[in-house]
Design goal:
Oligomer: single chain
Number of helices: 14
Largest sheet: 6 strands, mixed
Strand content: 5-15%
Strand order of the largest sheet: 1-2-3-4-6-9
CATH class of the largest domain: Alpha Beta
Structural class: alpha/beta
Helix content: 40-55%
Radius of gyration: 22 Å
Bound molecules: coenzyme A
Number of strands: 9
CATH topology of the largest domain: 2-enoyl-CoA Hydratase, Chain A, domain 1
């Protein structure tokens, strides 16, 4: 157990808080070791991870005092790179709540998440070249995928740090909320994921992470496994039987809800279908 990575079991997910506020949660070897231990747990338990930082910062980078002492063999060992790759490859979603500084290695940890939510004080970017090193823990290949080549190049080559509004506009975070609301949103998302089929969620994540040349083979083979699953049969049967029951009870009401003047009711509108899917989900 590490004192600088606080882990809370929230049932549907684990909340891990980087807790080294006096150093702006700079990621040192102890934190890297604790993150590896957390990954080992989540590789077995297969639950969503919410990552956050204590004291108004997510993480202000790798620990510069330790970085200064590292030499070529340490670079080749990829101390942070391997750790963030492992987080990226976790079987279930990773949601990062980015409050305040997410710089250098802290930003790269954020880029390894599947979903990022910012707060109004967010400052995110990679000042590594100013320290005489490169951002070698994922930024050069993940940031372009997230924000596109042009902005990623500008950020990595000039060290430009984005504020919350720019990060939102660039799609680097999916929402900007006050810290408590950001954590509440992450919790809500983790709870939502927990209501879905974990096998389908994990297959979706594997497909999302697969390199371009593996598509569409990977989707088809993942789907082939899911098409044979008991859970798919159960969920689809459940949906169809509930629909059957409600249409049996309220035929006139359904007909009018799904049909606009001049339309046939052979297929529901996609908005209606979506809202029904949401409702179905919430009922589970
Ligand atoms: N590594 C090690 N220590 C760090 C750190 C890092 N990446 N970021 C902050 N700290 C430490 C500071 O050294 C300071 O420690 P001290 O109190 O023992 O002197 C403490 O955290 C607070 O930092 P301070 O600079 O006083 O806070 P601030 O609120 O004025 O500024 C930052 C915050 C993030 C702007 C500033 O600390 C900073 O520029 N950090 C480095 C960012 C960086 O280059 N990251 C990339 C590393 S790969």
């Amino acid at each position: 157990m590490s004192e600088t990575l606080r882990i809370e079991d929230r049932g549907t997910h684990l909340l891990a808080t980087l807790d080294r506020p006096e150093k702006r949660n700079a990621i040192d070897q102890e934190l890297v070791d604790a993150l590896h231990a957390l990954c080992a747990r989540l590789e077995v338990e297969r639950r969503t991870l919410v990552l956050a930082g204590a004291g108004g910062s997510f993480a202000a980078g790798a620990d510069i005092a330790q970085l200064r002492e590292r030499r070529a063999p340490d670079a080749l060992a990829g101390i942070n790179t391997r750790c963030f790759q492992r987080i990226r490859a976790l079987p279930m979603p990773v949601i990062a709540v980015l409050d305040g500084y997410a710089l250098g290695g802290g930003a790269e940890l954020a880029y390894a998440a599947d979903i990022r939510i910012g707060t109004p004080t967010l400052k995110i970017g990679n000042p590594e070249t100013g320290l005489g090193i490169i951002a070698a823990a994922g930024a050069t290949w993940r940031l372009p995928q997230i924000v596109g080549d042009a902005l990623a190049s500008e950020m990595l080559l000039t060290g430009r740090i984005l504020g919350a509004d720019e990060a939102l506009a660039a799609g680097l975070v999916s929402a900007v909320l006050e810290p408590e609301a950001a954590l509440a949103r992450a919790t809500e998302l983790a709870e939502r994921v927990a209501a879905l089929d974990p096998a389908a969620t994990q297959a979706t994540k594997r497909a999302l992470l697969a390199p371009a040349h593996e598509h569409p083979r990977i989707e088809l083979s993942e789907q082939a496994v899911l098409f044979e699953s008991d859970e798919k049969m159960r969920r689809m049967t459940d949906f169809l039987e509930r629909r059957g029951r409600s249409s049996g009870n309220r035929p006139a009401e359904r007909g009018s809800a799904d049909t606009s003047p001049g339309e046939t009711n052979s297929a529901p509108s996609s908005a209606a279908a979506t809202s029904r899917a949401d409702t179905d989900q919430e009922q589970r």
